[in-house]
Design a protein that fits this description.
The complex is a heterodimer of chains A (about 800) and B (about 70). Helix content of chain A is about 50%, strand content about 20%. Chain A is an alpha+beta fold. Chain A folds into 7 domains: about 5-60, Ribosomal Protein L24e, Chain: T, CATH 2.30.170; about 70-170, Alpha-Beta Plaits (2-Layer Sandwich), CATH 3.30.70; about 175-310; about 325-420, Calcium-transporting ATPase, cytoplasmic transduction domain A (Distorted Sandwich), CATH 2.70.150.10; about 440-505 and about 765-820, no CATH class; about 505-535 and about 650-755, HAD superfamily/HAD-like (Rossmann fold); about 545-635, Calcium-transporting ATPase, cytoplasmic domain N. Chain A starts with a helix and ends in a 5-residue tail after the last helix.
C-alpha cells in the first residue's frame, strides 16, 4: 500500500487522489511524500513531530480523510469542559480525588496502528494518567487530572491526529451487556477447564475396560468426575436451560430443549449410575461428554456474538445522527448590538430557540429558516440525491446537512421529537411486525424431542411390564444414546463456517436466520440512492454547442466552480487547470466569472444563455433527452456546453441484477427520489417493478403488502429513511457505508458494497442449507438407528459413548466444507 | 496406588484455583479486548535496545520531552 502511493498521485495519509493544483509535501522516513489536503498535512506533521512516523510503517489500512476543522469546532469541543455536561459521562476515580475517568467513543480508526498512534500521543499529554483504546469496540478509557489538563485539550489532540472522539455514556443497558459478555467468557472457561479435567479422569475409566480396575477406584473416579462436572451443569450450561424454559413457555420446541435434555439427561443418568448402582464396567458414565459438549456449544455462541460486535458499533444511537452541540443565537444586552453566538449542548435545545447552522453542519433539530437561504442534503432522510433549496420559511429537518450558506433556524421540534426520532420509533413497531423465521433446526427439534420422549417412555413402560429391574437403566440408555449432540451442532457449525467464508467475500451476517432466509427469498427490493447508485453526483455527459471542445469547456467550468462551495462544484474539481477572475455567484441561478479575459456564465439555462426559461423547455426537446441535472455554460448570448450530472449507477449493478433474476428472484426498486430519476435507473437496469417518491412509511407498507401475499422479501438499503423498511422485511441487508444505526438494525451488511457479492451470498446460502440438511439427516439417522437398539437393551455402554462423539465429529467436519467456497 | 486419594483431591484444588484466577482476570476487564494485545506487541518501541539507534532516540526524546514525563 505504501509502495504505490509513491509513484502515483495519491495522498500519503488517506490515499485519495491529490487534486491538480494542490501541492504539499513532507519528508517522512527520508522520502518526500505528497498530500491531498491541508488537513492530511497537518495530521502528518503532528505525527512526525511526535516522533511517531513508525505509524506509517505499521499501518495496514490507509487513514480516514479528516473532516474540516476550524475555530468553531474547537469551541464546540470546549463545551465538554462544562462541569454540568460532564456529570453525564465523567466519574471521579476511586483511587484518587484528583483523577477523573471518562469513556470516549473514537471514530476514524481504520487499523491497529491507529490505536497505537492514539495511545502514544494522548498518553504524552501532561495530566493524562492513562489512555487505552479497545480494539473491538473503539471505545477508549481516559484517566486524567482535571486540574492540569481540561478534557477539551485531550479531545483536541485526538482531533489533530485525524480522529474524532466524543464522550460516551455507558448506560445501564450497555453495562449489562458488558457484564453478560464477561460472564459468558467465564462460563466458557469453567466448561473448558472442567472438560479437560474430566477427560483426564475418564482415562482410567476407559483403560479399566481393557486392563481391569478395582471397583474402589472405579467408584472413586466416577465420584470425582461427578464433582468436576457439577460446575458445568449448575453454572456454565444455565443459559441453555433458561432459553429452553422460555421456549417451552412460548409453547415452542427450539433447539435449546434437546440441548438441555442432552446435558441434564446425560448428567443425571451418569449421576444415577454413580450413586445408586454397584460400580461395574457393565454401565458407563458420560460426565466428560457433558462438559465437552457444553464447552463447544458455548464457544460457538461466543464466536457468533463476537463477530456480530466486531463490525458493528452496538452503541449506535440517535445521537450519532444528530450533532451533540448546537450554536444558539442569544440577543445581546444592548439591542443595538448583533446577537451573540453561543455553543450549547444539543440536550438544551428548546422549542423557539434560534440556531445558527453553518455550511457543512448537520441541523441539530427540526426548524424553520428565519434568515438566509441555502441548500440541504436530505439524502439520508428522503433518498433525494440532489440538495434541496431552502429559503426563509422553509422547514429544515434534523439530521440533514447544510451544504451551502450559513442560515438561522427557529426550532419547531427539539431533537427528541424530530422527524428522525419519529422514523426511529417507526422502526420499533416495524420490528414487532417482522415475520418470525422458524429455523429448520428448530422445526426438526420439535418433532425430535417429542419422538425421543415418547420412545423413552414407551420402552420404559414395556420393560417395566416385562422386567421391572431393567426398566430404569434402559430408559436412561435410550435418553443417552439419542442425546442430540450432533443435532445441536448441525446448524451452528454450518452457520459459523458459512459466515466465515462470506465475511471474506465482504458479506457480514449478523443474525442467525440470514442463511435460511436468503435461500428462501423470492423478492429482492433495492433502495436507489446509495444502494443501486453510488449516492453522489458525477459528470455523466458533456455536450458542446459552441467553439470549444469538451476539455476546454470543462476547464472553464472548473475555473468558475473552484469558487463555489456547492456540491456540484466538487464534480468539476478534477478538471481544474486555469483560474477565473471577478467571480460572482447568484443563488439559485449560477456563477459568473472571467476566464482568460472573456465573460462566462455557468448555471441554469436562463443564466447561461441570457434567454427566458420558456425557451429551455423547447431547447431541451431540441437537445437529447436526459436524466439527471443539466448545467449550462454560456457566454451570455448562447449556450456553449451542457454538462449532465447524475448519480452514477454502481458498476456491477447490471451484472448483479441479471444474476439475481436468473436465480428466479423478482427485483424491485423502492425509492424516495423523484419518479423521473427512479424510472431512469430502473429501466437502465432492466427492473420492471419500481415505486418512486416513497416515504419511510410507504416503503414499509409496500414490503408488508408483499409479505402478506406470502412473498419472502429481502430488502437492501442504506439510508435512515430505509430503517423502518429494513427492520420490517423478512431479511434486510445494509450497505457498508450506511449509518451504524442502519447496520445495527439489519440482518446482514454488505461490507464491500459490491452488489455482485449478493449473488455469491445467495449461492453460499443455498450450499449452506444443503450442508445443514446433510448434517441434520446424519444426526437423525444415527439417533433413529440407535433408538430401537437401545430400547432393546442391545447397546453396550462404551459404544454409546463412542457413537456420541463420532456423530458429532462427522457433523463438524462436514460443516467445514463450507469454508472453501 | 493409594497416593491417588491424595493427588486427585489436590488436582481438584488446583483446578478450583485456576478457575478462581481466571474469574478474577475476567472480572477486572483483562479479557474485554481480545484483539488489542496481539497487535500492540508488534508496536512496542524496542528500537532503543539497538545501541546506535538508542542514542539517536534518546536525543530525539530530549528535544521534545517537554510534554513527556
Amino acid at each position: 500500500m505504501e509502495a504505490h502511493s509513491q509513484d502515483t498521485q495519491c495522498c500519503y495519509h488517506c490515499g485519495e487522489t491529490v487534486p491538480p493544483g494542490f501541492s504539499a509535501e513532507l519528508v517522512i522516513n527520508k522520502q518526500s511524500e505528497k498530500f491531498c489536503c491541508l488537513g492530511c498535512v497537518a495530521i502528518a506533521e503532528t505525527i512526525i513531530t511526535g516522533g511517531l512516523e513508525n505509524f506509517y510503517q505499521h499501518r495496514t489500512e490507509l487513514a480516514a480523510k479528516p473532516s474540516e476543522f476550524g475555530d468553531s469546532q474547537i469551541n464546540e469541543l470546549k463545551l465538554y469542559d462544562d462541569p454540568e455536561l460532564q456529570k453525564e459521562f465523567v466519574i471521579t476515580s476511586p483511587d484518587s480525588e484528583d483523577e477523573s475517568i471518562a469513556n470516549l467513543s473514537v471514530g476514524g480508526i481504520t487499523c491497529a496502528a491507529c490505536i497505537w498512534l492514539l495511545e502514544q500521543e494522548v498518553s504524552r499529554i501532561e495530566g493524562v494518567a492513562s489512555f487505552s483504546v479497545n480494539h473491538t469496540t473503539h471505545k477508549a478509557q481516559l484517566r486524567w487530572s482535571q486540574k492540569t489538563c481540561p478534557l477539551s485539550d485531550v479531545l483536541l489532540k485526538i482531533r489533530k491526529l485525524g480522529f474524532q472522539a466524543l464522550p460516551y455514556n455507558e448506560d445501564q443497558q450497555k453495562a449489562q451487556a458488558k457484564k453478560e459478555r464477561r460472564t459468558s467468557l467465564f462460563r466458557i472457561a469453567v466448561a473448558g477447564i472442567a472438560a479437560m479435567q474430566n477427560m483426564m479422569f475418564s482415562v482410567p475409566l476407559y483403560l479399566g475396560i481393557y486392563t481391569g480396575i478395582t471397583t474402589d477406584f472405579l467408584s472413586f473416579f466416577r465420584w470425582v468426575s461427578l464433582l468436576m462436572s457439577l460446575p458445568v451443569v449448575l453454572f456454565a450450561a444455565t443459559p441453555f436451560y433458561r432459553a429452553a424454559l422460555r421456549s417451552l413457555k412460548a409453547k415452542q420446541l427450539t433447539m435449546d430443549v434437546p440441548v438441555t435434555i442432552a446435558i441434564l439427561g446425560a448428567f443425571l443418568a451418569s449421576a444415577y449410575i454413580t450413586a445408586f448402582t454397584e460400580p461395574s464396567l457393565e454401565s458407563d458414565v458420560y460426565f466428560d461428554s457433558v462438559a465437552m459438549f457444553t464447552f463447544f456449544l458455548l464457544l460457538g455462541r461466543f464466536i457468533e456474538m463476537q463477530t456480530r460486535h466486531q463490525h458493528l458499533n452496538t452503541d449506535a444511537e440517535m445521537s450519532q445522527l444528530l450533532p451533540a452541540t448546537a450554536t444558539l443565537l442569544v440577543d445581546a444586552e444592548d439591542p443595538e448590538d448583533d446577537p451573540i453566538e453561543q455553543s450549547i449542548p444539543a440536550l438544551k435545545i428548546r422549542e423557539g430557540d434560534r440556531l445558527v447552522v453553518k455550511q457543512g453542519q448537520v441541523a441539530p433539530a427540526d426548524g424553520v429558516i428565519v434568515d438566509g437561504h441555502s441548500r440541504f442534503d436530505e439524502s439520508a432522510l428522503t433518498g433525494e440525491y440532489l440538495p434541496i433549496e431552502k429559503q426563509v420559511g422553509d422547514a429544515v429537518s434534523a439530521g440533514t446537512a447544510n451544504v451551502e450558506n450559513t442560515i438561522i433556524i427557529a426550532v419547531t421540534q427539539p431533537p427528541k421529537s424530530s422527524r428522525v426520532a419519529a422514523i426511529i420509533q417507526l422502526l420499533d413497531s416495524a420490528m414487532a411486525d417482522k415475520p418470525a423465521t422458524i429455523k429448520l433446526a428448530d422445526r426438526i427439534a420439535s418433532y425430535f424431542v417429542a419422538t425421543v420422549l415418547i420412545a423413552a417412555a414407551l420402552s420404559g413402560l414395556y420393560w417395566y411390564i416385562a422386567d421391572p429391574d431393567m426398566a430404569f437403566p434402559i430408559m436412561l440408555a435410550v435418553l443417552v444414546v439419542t442425546c442430540p449432540c450432533a443435532l445441536s451442532l448441525a446448524t451452528p457449525t454450518a452457520l459459523t463456517a458459512a459466515n466465515t467464508a462470506l465475511r471474506k467475500t465482504g458479506f457480514l451476517i449478523t443474525k442467525s436466520h440470514v442463511l435460511e432466509s436468503l435461500s428462501n427469498s423470492t423478492d429482492i427490493i433495492f433502495d436507489k440512492t446509495g444502494t443501486l447508485t453510488e449516492g453522489r453526483l458525477e459528470l455523466s455527459q458533456t455536450d458542446t454547442y459552441g467553439q470549444y471542445n469538451e476539455a476546454q469547456s470543462l476547464a472553464i467550468a472548473a475555473a468558475l466552480e473552484a469558487h463555489s462551495s456547492h456540491p456540484i462544484a466538487a464534480v468539476f474539481k478534477p478538471f481544474f487547470a486555469i483560474s477565473a477572475k471577478q467571480v460572482a455567484t447568484k443563488l439559485g441561478r449560477g456563477i459568473y466569472g472571467q476566464v482568460n479575459g472573456r465573460d462566462y456564465w455557468l448555471g441554469n439555462y436562463e443564466w447561461a444563455s441570457g434567454q427566458s426559461a420558456n425557451d429551455e423547455q423547447e431547447s431541451v426537446q431540441h437537445y437529447t433527452p436526459h436524466a439527471g441535472h443539466g448545467i449550462y455554460l454560456g457566454d451570455g448570448k448562447q449556450i456553449l456546453a451542457r454538462f449532465l450530472l447524475s448519480d452514477k449507477i454502481r458498476d456491477d449493478a447490471q451484472i448483479a441484477i441479471r444474476d439475481l433474476k436468473r436465480m428466479g428472484m423478482t427485483v424491485h426498486v423502492l425509492s424516495g427520489d423523484h419518479e423521473f430519476s427512479v424510472r431512469h435507473t430502473a429501466l437502465e437496469l432492466g427492473i420492471e417493478k419500481f415505486a418512486a417518491g416513497q416515504s419511510p412509511e410507504q416503503k414499509l407498507e409496500y414490503v408488508q403488502a408483499l409479505q402478506r401475499e406470502g412473498k419472502e422479501v429481502t430488502m437492501v438499503g442504506d439510508g435512515i429513511n430505509d430503517l423502518p423498511v429494513l427492520s420490517g422485511a423478512r431479511l434486510s441487508i445494509a450497505m457498508g457505508r450506511a449509518s451504524d444505526l442502519t447496520k445495527l438494525n439489519s440482518d446482514a451488511v454488505l461490507l464491500n458494497e459490491q452488489l455482485s457479492t449478493l449473488a455469491c451470498a445467495f449461492h453460499t446460502a443455498n450450499k449452506g442449507r444443503t450442508i445443514i440438511k446433510e448434517n441434520i439427516s446424519w444426526a437423525l439417522a444415527y439417533n433413529i438407528i440407535m433408538l430401537p437398539l437401545a430400547a432393546m437393551g442391545w447397546v453396550p455402554p462404551y459404544f454409546a459413548a463412542l457413537g456420541m462423539s463420532l456423530s458429532s465429529l462427522i457433523v463438524v467436519f462436514n460443516s467445514l466444507r463450507l469454508k472453501t467456497l | 496406588m493409594e497416593i491417588l486419594y491424595i493427588l486427585i483431591p489436590v488436582s481438584l484444588i488446583l483446578v478450583a484455583v485456576a478457575i478462581a484466577i481466571f474469574g478474577w482476570a475476567v472480572k477486572s476487564g483483562q479479557y474485554d479486548d481480545l484483539e488489542g494485545p496481539a497487535h500492540s506487541i508488534l508496536f512496542d518501541d524496542d528500537d532503543p535496545l539497538i545501541p546506535g539507534q538508542a542514542k539517536r532516540k534518546s536525543d530525539a526524546d530530549s528535544k521534545q520531552s517537554s510534554s513527556h514525563d
